[in-house]
DNA sequence: CTGAAAGCGCTTACAG
DNA sequence: CTGAAAGCGCTTACAG
């Protein structure tokens, strides 16, 4: 039993041409007479020939592989972004190598070494950061780096960020406009750049507005943490009536606790704003007012940058705007009762 | 600017040994004196050398890459499975190539061709099926195939299935035991092997028990379809009081519609059973009684089979049991009120 | 234990 | 337009 796929040599022999010719047949733009091309294509088809990307990658110094480096890849937001990225990559003729990390420097380094050993054309970081020295090694090898929502930059890389702080500020304004008297900030203890920025924006605006607020930060970024956050915030003697939660996943936990354990009416007795616009935020049971991450835009910009353009030595940076998605967890007091009905 | 990573040649020169020696240094079990190894390791470290898996894959006919072929990869169940698979693969020293399909034969074929061109050691199918002829080509090249929840088999491949029909049957029994008088079967129109089996088991058992039931099948497998299903089922003149929904995602949609649009109390006025045990099924707002897919077991069995063992010519098959997860969407009537309280 | 040499499957100047 | 030849970075018998 042959354990080898057909090679260019096999095709060449069958078609009665040189190995070079069959190579040209599969490299766009190479000169080849229509007749020869036809003969080669037919032979290739007959043999089930597929060019070996390992070999061609070795020669051309371009593998068509790009590494996706991320932690917690089954989380709603993360998996959505990964999906968008994978799809765009495929449309651009690239292929995605998924590498799971646990966010530790060690595992991120490990991931990047994997990427290097497969000579990926690029690496996209959704979690963690490559050490400066390793990043330089990558660049020297012609590998491109894109950093999504990371707080540092690396020379030669593309950095895509959201204006997280602005979202925190807008959340405060919104909550105050809804008549909330006592604000709450809920976040995980993950200390991820995006979360920290959202928190900072919130504190800044709340302080500037002279608003009273309390905050709770704990645990990993999860639904369960949301439940704990809800318990902590809602058992306070003077509990908040307007909460900004740095992540939808946690906000869902807060909503459930408020509703099912305390019977708190949302948005009448408690207004809540999340971040990410995960699918569940749009579910009827949550209808969460939140800020959406422009996932398709992030994915598009990332792969556009990867496939086009020359390598530069400065870092490029693009700042995207989260968009406010109004749903039904923030009380609307500006609209009178009758107008409210007319609007529906 | 050097655009090339350090190669074995560079390391060999720096360490004053042959290229063969540095190759041996990085292949487990190759004979090499401790002294030489030490010198090589040091040189490699200094140069930031990583063996080029493209070149080694070419020679050894083993790339360490395994393709994950799936549709709708950001769905809760799918992304969870993908995450487990990726993790196990990494632990086994392999790396995951993620390929997105849209389930059409065409895109599945495309995906497999991609896998072939990168000479992946294996392909794991979570969606779609490789055409018989293509599958044979793969096997001939020594590529291993694992099919998860697929209805056909392919010689030489591993097929992992769940006893979906049995779950459908158990759902009927459970609903009947809960005192439901009129059953409902809710499913998407996706015609996926797993769904069809779950439906079949339900119909079989319902018919055998002489139970009255209605069914609704429509749309893709999504939360939104669940909402439609809920509308269709709950607006019936004689609506069901016990529903088996072939997927948790859709079940969540049904719950929300029942609760928020019709004010139906769950489980008092409507019992509901799902399938998959996605994270949301465990959320406080749903607390969905459901069947769990043994995801970790599926992942473990898949990669164990891949890394160990000889290629055989018959297809192997393993049948896994979905496990009933009792939560709070099925009415409990066997337990008297006082006993009920004692149990808590 | 170690090295020289052949070979994996491709691409790409270089000539013609 | 086409082929012969060199070379990408590795591994692996084969000798010593």
TrEMBL record, chains A, B:
CDD domains: HTH_LacI, PBP1_LacI-like. It comes from the Bacteria. SUPFAM superfamilies: lambda repressor-like DNA-binding domains, Periplasmic binding protein-like I. InterPro entries: HTH_LacI, LacI/GalR-like_sensor, Lambda_DNA-bd_dom_sf, Peripla_BP_I. Keywords: DNA-binding, Repressor, Transcription, Transcription regulation. The keyword Iron does not apply. Pfam families: LacI, Peripla_BP_3. The keyword DNA-binding applies. PANTHER family: LACI-RELATED TRANSCRIPTIONAL REPRESSOR, RIBOSE OPERON REPRESSOR. This is LacI family DNA-binding transcriptional regulator.
């Amino acid at each position: 039993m042959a354990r080898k796929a057909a090679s260019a040599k096999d095709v060449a022999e069958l078609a009665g041409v040189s190995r070079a010719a069959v190579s040209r047949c599969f490299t766009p733009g190479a000169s080849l007479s229509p007749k020869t091309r036809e003969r080669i294509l037919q032979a290739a088809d007959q043999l089930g020939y597929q060019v070996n990307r390992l070999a061609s990658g070795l020669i051309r110094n371009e593998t068509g592989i790009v590494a996706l480096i991320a932690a917690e890849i089954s989380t709603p937001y993360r998996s959505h972004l990964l999906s968008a990225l994978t799809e765009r990559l495929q449309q651009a003729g690239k292929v995605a190598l998924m590498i799971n990390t646990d966010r530790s420097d060690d595992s991120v380094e490990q991931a990047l070494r994997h990427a290097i050993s497969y000579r990926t054309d690029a690496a996209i970081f959704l979690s963690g950061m490559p050490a400066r020295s390793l990043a330089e090694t990558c660049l020297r090898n012609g590998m491109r780096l894109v950093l999504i929502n990371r707080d540092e930059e690396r020379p030669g890389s593309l950095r895509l960020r959201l204006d997280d702080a602005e979202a925190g500020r807008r959340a405060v304004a919104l909550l105050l406009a809804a008549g909330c008297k006592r604000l709450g900030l809920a976040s995980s203890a993950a200390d991820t750049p995006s979360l920290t920025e959202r928190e900072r924006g919130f504190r800044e605006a709340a302080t500037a507005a002279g608003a009273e607020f309390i905050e709770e930060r704990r645990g990993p970024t999860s639904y369960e943490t949301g439940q704990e956050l809800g318990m902590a915030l809602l058992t306070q003697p003077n509990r908040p009536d307007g909460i900004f939660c740095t992540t939808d996943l946690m906000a869902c936990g807060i909503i459930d606790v408020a509703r099912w354990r305390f019977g708190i009416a949302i948005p009448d007795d408690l207004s809540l704003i999340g971040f990410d616009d995960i699918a569940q935020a749009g579910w009827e049971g949550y209808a969460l007012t939140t800020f959406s991450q422009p996932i398709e835009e992030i994915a598009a910009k990332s792969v556009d940058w990867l496939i086009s353009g020359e390598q530069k030595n400065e870092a490029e940076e693009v700042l995207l705007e989260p968009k406010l998605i109004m749903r039904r967890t923030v009380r609307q007091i500006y609209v009178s009762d009758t107008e409210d009905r007319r609007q529906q």
